[in-house]
Model the fold of this input.
Amino acid sequence: MSLPRTGGDYACQSRVLGGGLGFVLSITGWWSRCFLWAPIYANILNVQFFQPLAYTFGLKDLAVNLNGKTASS
Done:
């Protein structure tokens, strides 16, 4: 069997294992990647958007709190 040029994991697994089992294995792999990358993207959004936005509006305490560090006086 040759690998299909389009369709990715689902196309290959559904041809080898059948439609139902191929779908289950493909979608669980996709879900696990989503759960892995969600906190990474949340951290990027926090560092590159929310913290600079808070500093821009003069909310230094909020920006420091978003960083997880306490403000020193």
Remarks:
- The chain has a mean pLDDT of 80.
- Helices lie at 8-17, 19-56, 60-67.
- Residues 51 and 63 are 5 Å apart (CA to CA).
